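> example.struct
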């Protein structure tokens, strides 16, 4: 045993103690999360739902005295969920198209200003999301980009799909790029060199050697980029606002036809419902977001991406 007599613990005992400690912390985390939700379970089924006048004019189809304020039967929630999934998937795809080649280049080549690029993307990860949204407003509402939008006849800020995707893309790309670069760096470049020495082209060596070896990390990075896009709040709120308060003239005919003008990005919808006093509805949306995030992180661990991310 380990004691005061300076008896050295065996490596196996140290490993067991460490694993036991990790399991104990995991159990405490799970129990703490369950207690957090169960202690607020009374908010899911309120005895009486009082709506302020502003709430009546803005949202009229929420059912009182039902689970989570009628969340599961409300078309607004399902439209918002569809909008969130669609924009997050599109954002993750755009991030992968630009981020995976950039991550490969950063991991294999000595690019001028490489250190500056690394610091820039690392800084974006730790920046408050609201700061990103404010920077996007300044970028798209003033200067050359604003004049270009005026010429083309559309605006990105406070728009549905373009605005949300742009607000999501900044942080989603930064998170995905970090994971994708780690995935490529975990593959020994000598494998590619051997393939090239045997007559393979650079593209074939990448496609048949590096890409399959880095596939788990690339998939994990895509899921991470998707989750980060789905969880975005501050940037989307500042750059796009809440669509339930915008006039119909701000939406295209296609958007109105599919009913997306009556939806909001889920994290923004959660904030809006709580802001208007519909606490149990917002709590239900928060629970749905926690469930989606938990499943996504579990998927990352299952495919072996945990070593690339944390």
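> example.seq
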């Amino acid at each position: 045993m380990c004691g005061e007599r300076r008896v050295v613990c065996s490596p196996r005992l140290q490993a067991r103690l460490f694993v036991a400690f990790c399991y104990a912390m995991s159990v405490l985390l799970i129990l703490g999360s369950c207690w957090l939700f169960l202690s607020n379970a009374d908010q899911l089924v309120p005895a009486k739902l009082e709506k302020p006048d502003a709430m009546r004019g803005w949202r009229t189809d929420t059912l009182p005295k039902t689970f989570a304020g009628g969340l599961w039967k409300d078309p607004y929630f399902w439209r918002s969920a569809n909008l969130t999934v669609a924009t997050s998937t599109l954002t993750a795809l755009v991030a992968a198209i630009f981020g995976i080649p950039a991550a490969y280049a950063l991991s294999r080549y000595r690019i001028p200003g490489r250190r500056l690029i690394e610091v820039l993307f690392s800084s974006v990860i730790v920046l408050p999301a609201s700061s990103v949204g404010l920077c996007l407003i300044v970028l798209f509402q003033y200067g050359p980009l604003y004049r270009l939008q005026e010429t083309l006849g559309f605006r990105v800020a406070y728009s549905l799909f373009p605005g949300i995707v742009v607000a999501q893309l900044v942080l989603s790309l930064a998170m995905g790029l970090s994971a994708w670069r780690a995935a490529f760096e975990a593959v020994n470049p000598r494998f590619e060199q051997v393939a090239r020495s045997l007559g393979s082209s650079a593209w074939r060596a990448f496609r048949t050697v590096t890409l399959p070896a880095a596939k788990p990390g690339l998939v994990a990075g895509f899921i991470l980029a998707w989750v980060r896009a789905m969880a975005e709040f501050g940037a989307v709120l500042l750059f796009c606002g809440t669509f339930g308060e915008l006039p119909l003239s701000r939406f295209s005919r296609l958007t109105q036809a599919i009913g997306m003008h009556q939806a909001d990005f889920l994290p923004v919808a959660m904030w809006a419902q709580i802001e208007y006093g519909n606490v149990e509805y917002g709590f239900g949306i928060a629970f749905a977001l926690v469930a989606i995030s938990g499943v996504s992180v579990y998927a990352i661990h299952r495919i072996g991406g945990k070593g690339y991310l944390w």
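> remarks
The radius of gyration is 24 Å.
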